[in-house]
Amino acid sequence: MNHNKQWSSALVSPYEQAREKENKIENLPMEIVGKIFDQIGEARHVVVASATCKMWRKVWKDYTCALSFNSNMYRDFHTSTFEVIITQTIFQTRGLKSLSIVMEYDHDDHQEYLSSELMVACLMHTHDSLRQLHYSAKTTPNMNFINTLCSAQKLEDLVLSFVFIFGFNPSHHKFHNLKSLSLNYVTISPLNLSLILLTACPKLETLVLVSLHIDKKTELDLSNPSLKNFFVEDINMAKFIISKVDCLENLHIKNCAIEFFKLVCKGALKTLEIDSSDLININIIGNTNNFESVDVYNSTIMWSSIYSMLIKKSSKIKRIKLCYVDFYEEDDEDIDMENLSSSTMALFMSMNNNNVMVLIGKSKEEFDLEN
């Protein structure tokens, strides 16, 4: 029986074998092939794969949900050609949900810009379906991204880099479904940023701010009642206030220099991480009963504020990590690391909390190894 199958298969011509394999590919459900294309992601590879057969060509147009364009994949093309490839590829799709357009910049003075018309055209074509957008490119001429982005009302995840945001109008600009917002190297005023967070994003849960081009001498006051996770990096401000964040659970501050920092808690805060930052004057007020851990690395902080306003008030504290930390106090009193550790442990013992881990004066690498 097996010999007969082997003989029959041997008699099949190479053309018929190839045709049989093609039929198996064509028999795959379009939805499955579409998910495969989404996993590929990079538009150049998706277009090449779509040339396999007519059905895959149709899948690329009708069932592909995610495409990404990275300038590194098109180094041999001029920027204008790269723009044409982006628009022609996107305009052949229907129902695109995730779009990424990234220009990779090096340290050279000569840096390429994408035309603002490109972004307008892409959003006009995808505004009914787009849920995730990652746009990282310098654009010319400068355009108001708020006006353009508000047409995509299904957006849930938005990452913007090297763009300008201005002219925000609370009455017209809304992101009703936005859950995650990341602004990197974005030029924006403190007032526009505050208004966007307070009035335009009612469902926002995660906020990332990195190297904003913002007036450092002014006050930055951010509020959002639904925000749960907040990461801020490389921002220097005279005054930074986080208030009306009833749901904030995790706060991470990295490479920041802030003269006055104020956080108003509503009982949800669980973790605070400060990395390579100077927080000279810290004021933490409100309910901190659920606070669990504080990690501080290579930073200058006012320990008395964190100790009295966070650690001492919480009955759920589980971990304290302090590595290469300079303690700043208004009375210029030096704090001895050994005494700090023993006094902190004494406090935890008095609280009958034996599950607290206290690590002080060790390197961050050793902390990571222990975890």
TrEMBL record:
<dbReference type="InterPro" id="IPR055411">
    <property type="entry name" value="LRR_FXL15/At3g58940/PEG3-like"/>
</dbReference>
<dbReference type="Pfam" id="PF24758">
    <property type="entry name" value="LRR_At5g56370"/>
</dbReference>
<dbReference type="InterPro" id="IPR032675">
    <property type="entry name" value="LRR_dom_sf"/>
</dbReference>
<protein>
    <recommendedName>
        <fullName>F-box/LRR-repeat protein 15/At3g58940/PEG3-like LRR domain-containing protein</fullName>
    </recommendedName>
</protein>
<dbReference type="InterPro" id="IPR036047">
    <property type="entry name" value="F-box-like_dom_sf"/>
</dbReference>
<feature type="domain" description="F-box/LRR-repeat protein 15/At3g58940/PEG3-like LRR">
    <location>
        <begin position="133"/>
        <end position="255"/>
    </location>
</feature>
